[in-house]
Specification:
Strand order of the largest sheet: 1-2-3-4
Radius of gyration: 10 Å
Number of helices: 0
Largest sheet: 4 strands, antiparallel, barrel
Number of strands: 4
Strand content: 35-45%
Length: 63
């Protein structure tokens, strides 16, 4: 499932995110959603979240 739709993402979901500094390389980081930072219903580059580890990134895939 892709991470462009806010309704698909729940706190506690396991996701793959791309961090700002990894956008060029496309390196993905796995983690558990702690907070949802994007307010809009959807976003073309992925919904921005903060993982429980404190990493902030845009959701590319929901596991």
């Amino acid at each position: 499932m892709n991470g462009n739709n806010r309704d698909n993402i729940k706190i506690g979901s396991k996701v793959l995110v791309v961090q700002k500094q990894d956008q060029r390389s496309g390196k993905l980081t796995e983690g558990i959603v702690g907070r949802i930072l994007t307010n809009s219903k959807n976003h073309p580059h992925g919904i921005k979240v903060m993982l429980e580890s404190g990493i902030v990134g845009r959701v590319k895939e929901i596991l």
